[in-house]
Specification:
This protein is of the alpha/beta class. Helix content is 37%, strand content 15%. It starts with a helix and ends in a 27-residue tail after the last helix. The C terminus is likely disordered.
Length: 268
């Protein structure tokens, strides 16, 4: 077990959070990550309270690990935050961590999470947002660098932002953006992060929904951090076109064919 502020706070055995990567962030993937000692995340914005209860109660029956709910809440998706209060209240009673992204940190949402008994997290793309998240009462913060794929809030490189945020807040900070190897994990831990948020690297897992793709493409997607955002968008189409190849499960190293799902659209 690798102990950090993040693992102490959440009870995880390893300082890794799986990003809620859209349609790939299925309960099966989050459960597998939780079983492996990380923080498995499910995108919960599309669930009504009844669906959410069914999904998370089923996950609890399948794992004793730590998992959480993710809400992507740009104004284009959620014009009024009151619209998601019931969803957030429900999630907060069922998971360990409730996370928000792509909006200025909002204290009322953080209060709802805490009232439900969960930890509140906010993914940010600037130091100003990080300070606002801490002031709003968040228990931890995810600092997203411009290297990230999908919905990118970051404006500067991960290490630049991480340095700024670590100097500004006292809660555990996870690093996000271009983390695709153990070496990258070690680097950001050495820089002061309490853990990492990983998205693209998990698309190699069978639990993520079943891509048939070659390892070389996955390696480029996960490790070419300076081009990760553009590679994600180009890579999604390329992955869908590939109809054969070897799939390597990041979590348990199983190999085997599976059907290609829809192209994923974001790394939340």
């Amino acid at each position: 077990m690798l102990k950090t502020g993040f693992t102490d706070l959440t009870g995880c055995k390893v300082p890794i959070q799986q990003a809620a990567i859209g349609g790939l962030a299925r309960p099966q993937l989050a459960t597998a990550v939780s079983d492996a000692g990380g923080l498995g995340m499910v995108y919960a914005g599309s669930f009504d309270p009844n669906q959410m209860t069914e999904v998370f109660e089923n996950m609890r029956r399948r794992t004793s690990g730590v998992f959480g709910a993710n809400f992507l809440i740009p104004e284009a998706f959620v014009s009024d935050l009151n619209e998601i209060h019931e969803q957030v209240e429900t999630a907060s009673k069922l998971v360990k961590v409730v996370e928000f992204f792509y909006r200025q940190p909002d204290p009322s949402l953080v209060d709802l999470v805490h009232k439900g008994g969960a930890l509140a997290s906010w993914q940010v793309g600037s130091n100003e947002e990080a300070v606002a998240a801490a002031d709003a009462g968040c228990d931890m913060i995810v600092a997203q660098g411009v290297e990230a794929g999908g919905h990118v809030r970051g404006k500067v490189s991960l290490l630049t932002l991480l340095s700024q945020v670590l100097d500004s807040v006292k809660v555990p900070v996870l690093a996000a953006g271009g983390i695709g190897s153990g070496r990258a994990l070690a680097a950001v831990l050495a820089a002061g992060a309490s853990g990492v948020r990983v998205g693209t690297r998990f698309i190699a897992a069978t639990e993520a929904g079943g891509y048939r793709c070659d390892r070389g493409l996955l390696r480029r997607l996960a490790q070419r951090t300076s081009q990760s955002a553009s590679l994600l968008h180009r890579g999604g189409s390329e992955l869908q076109r590939q109809r054969c190849g070897t799939q390597e499960t990041h979590l348990n190293r199983r190999n085997g064919p599976c059907e290609a799902p829809r192209v994923f659209h974001h790394d939340q």
